[in-house]
Structures are given as C-alpha cells and as structure tokens.
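User: what does the whole thing look like in 3D?
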Amino acid sequence: MTGLAGKRSADDETHLLNIMNANANCRELLILDARPAVNAKLNKAKGGGYEENYTNASLTFLNIHNIHVVRDALKRLTSCLIPRVDEKNYLKALDESKWLNHIQSILEGAVKAVFNVDTEKQSVLIHCSDGWDRTAQLTSLAMIQLDPFYRTIEGFAILIEKEWCSFGHKFGERIGHGEDGYNDGERSPVFVQFCDCLWQILRQFPSAFEFTQELLICMLDELYSCRYGTFLFNSEKIRLMDNKCDETTISFWSYVLEHRKKFNNPMYRPKKKVLYVNPSFCALQVWTDYYARSNPHVISPSHEEIQQPGGVDFLNEKKQLLDEIMALDETVHSMATGSAPSTSSSS
Amino acid sequence: MTGLAGKRSADDETHLLNIMNANANCRELLILDARPAVNAKLNKAKGGGYEENYTNASLTFLNIHNIHVVRDALKRLTSCLIPRVDEKNYLKALDESKWLNHIQSILEGAVKAVFNVDTEKQSVLIHCSDGWDRTAQLTSLAMIQLDPFYRTIEGFAILIEKEWCSFGHKFGERIGHGEDGYNDGERSPVFVQFCDCLWQILRQFPSAFEFTQELLICMLDELYSCRYGTFLFNSEKIRLMDNKCDETTISFWSYVLEHRKKFNNPMYRPKKKVLYVNPSFCALQVWTDYYARSNPHVISPSHEEIQQPGGVDFLNEKKQLLDEIMALDETVHSMATGSAPSTSSSS
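Assistant: Here's the predicted 3D structure for the full assembly of 694 residues, as structure tokens:
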C-alpha cells in the first residue's frame, strides 16, 4: 500500500506470501514495522506506505523513534554525565533525556522477533522507512539472541558485516566522516545506540558472549577514527567497488582477530540456548563505561579492573594449567614406554 | 558538650586526646558524626550533644538520616518494583523514593573515613546519637574497604560479629522478631541498608571479595527467618548471657562455612589494596536482585545465571585442574624413583 491513493503491488504481496510459505510452520507472517504508527501514516503523504490488508500477514508498529530523536536524546544523556554529574538532579535529568526509553523500545522489538521465531516458530519480516538504521538494529539484535554463533568473536564480525556493512548502513553520513557540517541533520548515533542495546544484553548474560564490552568500545572508537576501511562510506558498493577499500585499507576485524586476548570474556561459557533480554526499565542501565569514560568521577572501578591486563584473567590461567597437564601426560607416557628420560615439568 | 547548658566533660576530652596520641601520625582527630547537623543541634534540647571546641579534633557531620527516614524510603523504593514496575514513571518514582540518596550519603561517609585512615594516616572517631545503627554501618563499610581480610568469608563473619552483633545493633527491635506491632516505630531496615551499601562495593569491585551477593541475600533471609541465634535479641548480653543462644541455637556462620561453595565468588582474586567505592549517583544501582526477586518481570537473567550451580564455576574448575596436576606429579615422581607402577591419572 503506497501513497494516499493506497496503490497495491501484486508482486510485493506475492513475494511476502512466498516468504511465509518457505516456513512450513508459519500460519501468518509477522511484519514488524519499526516506526511509530503515526509516522508511518504521515509518510503516506510523501508516497510511502505499509502493508495493509496483506493476506496471511499481521502488521505491528514497534514505536521506535527516528534518527533525529535519537541524536537529541544522546545529547541530553551525555550532558547528564559530562563534564560533571549534577548529583542532586541526576535521575530527573536521566529520565528527561528519554535515552533509556529508546533503548527499551528497540530491545522490546528485538525480543518480539526472537519470541516469534524461537517460541512460535513463525517467520518475521522486519522493516522501516528505509531499512538501514532501525531495521539493522532490530535484525542484528534478534539474531545475536537467537544464534549463539553470533556471540563468538568471529560470529559477531560476520553479523556486523552482514547486517550493517553489506546491508547499507550509511556509516559515512551518520557519523559525518570527513564532513565539517556538524549540524548536518543526517548525522545520528544509530550504530552507537545499537552497541548500547547490545551492551545491555552482554550485561544481563555475563557468560553468553565470547567478548566483553571492550570490543564494543573499541569498535565505536575505530568507527570515529577511520583507521580501518570497515566503516567507511555509505554502502558496500561505494566502499568496495568505487573506493577499493578491501585493497587499500585494513579491516577492523583483522585487528580484532589479532588482538583477541584484549576482548576475551573470562566468564564465557558457550551455550546453545536462545537469550531473551529483559527490557524492563529497571533492568536497563546507563552505559557509563562508554559515555562517561572521560569523567573520572563517574567511571566505576570495575571497568578499570576488567580492563587491567591480567586483572581477571581466568582464560589464560586455565590455558596454562591445561598446558601443564599435557606436558605431564607426555612425560608419564614417555616414561611408561621408556622412550625418553624421566623429567618433571611442573614444580 | 551536652545539653543546652553546654556542659563539658573533662574525662571525655582526655579520652579523645588519648585516642589521638595513640597514632604518632595523627595531627588532629577527625570526628565523624553520622547525623545531619540540624538533628544533632535539636538533640541538644533533649540533653544530647556533640564535640564542640575539643582540642586537636575536627568535627564533621555526615548528613545521614535516621531509622525512620530509612524505613519510609525503602517502602517507597519497593513500591517502584513490586508487584509491578510502572515503566513510564520508574525513574521519577525511584528519584522520589530518595533511597539511592541515603545509600550515597552512607558511602560518602565511609569513603571519608577510608581516605583519612589510608591516605592521610589520621585516626578517625565515628559516632552518632546511639552508636548501634549508622555508626555500625559506617565502621564496617570503612573496615571492609581498608582491610582485605574482611573481604574473605571468615573475615566477613568476624566483621559482622564484631561491629554489629557484639556492638549491640538491636536486631530484635529493628526487625521486629516475634512482635506483632508492624507499625512499631523502632523497626527499621538499617541492616538491609548496610547490605545494600556493601552490594554497591561488591558490584564495583567484582574480584575483590571471596563471596558473592548470595551471601548477603542469604544473611538477610536468615535475619528474618530466625533459624539461627546469630541475629536474635537486642544485644550480646541478652543473646548470650540471658538467653544462652550460643548453647541453644546454631550460628549462621556455621551454616555459611559448611556451604562455602554456595557463596564463593568465581571472580575472586585476593588483593591487598584499599578499595575506594565510587559514591557518585550514576555509579550506584538499585539492588533489584534482592528487593525485586519476587517480581519475575524485574529480575535480570544474570542473577539466575550466577546462582545456577556450575553455571560459572571457575573456582571448582581450577581446583580440579590443580588436583590433576598434583596426581600427575606424584605419578612422575613415583615412576622416576621406581616406587610404584606407572599409571596415568589423566585422560
């Protein structure tokens, strides 16, 4: 259904029917439209539309606000934290920033998708006005809760490449790479907001991810630094075909994979189960370790403690112990078979 | 200085001078009076007083509110969380409860004591109107930050016995053990508030404590259950001399030491350093894992995950690996000396 005239597209309707039929369990295709219903209706005036009266499809609006609202909310949030915290009015100012409300509506949308795929075994179609901002947020947050592979470092790299880089998130425009117009209305911290949502999941499931928040923080730093080609330009075509970033720049993921130790989560225990983040207001927190790290009065000591190399390094300790066991095993074996002199490798 | 007449006590002044002189580094004895200054002044009308014009002593009021204010604040806090969370007004209601403001003033007071003892090498005297509520909160929170021994399970037991049980915190009256008068003005969750403050420290220093929040939650449950004699009655005299609780009841700490595994912190790395909790408003959090555990919509999945036996059990894993190494070492040794048949204990 597009425009005020309500034109229908038979091809589109058939396409959606085919998507539904691809899943034998699917009784009805759930369409999640990320926008507030009122915005979607207003967009009809500009020739836009949404799926009204499609056969075997139900449409839900997720009430997630657009890039302009997100930009303003983050400005208000950071002014609660930097350069100093107004201790007397902190909660009031945090409330008024509405930042956590936006985080909540995205997480609620992602949980809705997870529930429909995991519990109801239905297919879900997610879209928005364009498909490269809120849509990418929702699909990647749903996928990382559904599939444990995306919670490994390799899997996460693939998820970001797939849902953000290849799908056409306009990194260049949203961050304003190489642009002076800091008031440009196209700038918006959509990817930052996605990382915040993911941080909420990491925090609620401390042993489900191979990586810690350090990977998210490092990724956001490199997003703004432009050291790697991964997050340059506005689409994969411009990045790879027009600008040959794959030949002329290094990938952010090469750096990550070479410095895995820095990002390893010592609490990681791979689990197959699907995660359901709790989007309730009192389960959400402010990501001060990222937004307020320049304010020494805000940063919590636990952040430093985790960051400190060797501070909480269980993974390494375990590896050393396992190495020692292997060496001892070999010694025992060679002594039993008389193939080598007897030596004790541990002391 | 007591009463409106401002009577002085030479003995008290000498006593404080002696305390100061016991520390060769001490230039001036810091007296921390837990009360708001205005309350201390009002108490003069009832014959109370505080240390005005003592030689070589400086007096600071910590502005911590009394048992009645604490009781009302906790009622307001829990009504934000139970039976359901009003998602739209959560931050506003949390702000209005003032609970975190009270937590903040106690932590600020404790940090002041820690700073003066650790950094300034001065002596500190802490008191309040009576000495068994806010005083015990401050001294025990300062000691646990200053001395790593109190961060072990044994040390923590000694700290609670010393600063709360022996010092005369009126557990019976504050909790209302065996009393019907639930409106009794002497009831107040002072010990709960202390545990909340301690939880903030645990959370900010995830590897500094041998125990997890499970020990705090279990302690609070047993405080209300009266299963153990540890927290019965209003003083050590009534508990041990009048009621022989040491002969007729089991100590809570016997239970804890027999079930250490339940409370062990897998992240624990003993450290000698002094802790400084960050009392900034945005470093504080609501202890939903305790206050809201009866609300399934609030409880965060991470709580379950930590509680799950074997969920994140690094300590045990490490112990098993070390046992295996010891067994292999013995095998190698006995094979080398020819004192036993060669067997491999690992596979």
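In plain terms: The first strand of chain B starts at residue 29 and ends at 33. Chain B touches chain A through 58 residues (CB under 8 Å).
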